[in-house]
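Hey,
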Amino acid sequence: QVHLVESGGGLVQAGGSLRLSCAAPRMAFVINAMGWFRQAPGKQRELVAAISSGDRTNYADSVKGRFTISRDKGENTIYLQMNSLKPEDTAVYYCNTGILRGRYQPGASWGQGIQVTVSS
């Protein structure tokens, strides 16, 4: 099984920043783009941000202007810089290797999930 190594979550106050990292082995099955979904208690999973091998990006409207997704030169690691965090950003964030049109695709790999908690 391919395992994505996800890190960078934690607890911050509103207005603070966190940076998530997701390392995908080169043999991971990547479909179109990599990125993060998040799921808060009682809410549906939603796409947060995605980035393709050609550096095309996609963001949820709720995070535009606050979050920035990027990738390293080898395209084996992606990052999500989260600034001006709000309590509504509190969720478990899941890295994923297969994002197309805002949806995850069969065969893609997932990170273990990392908790982001933003206090008011």
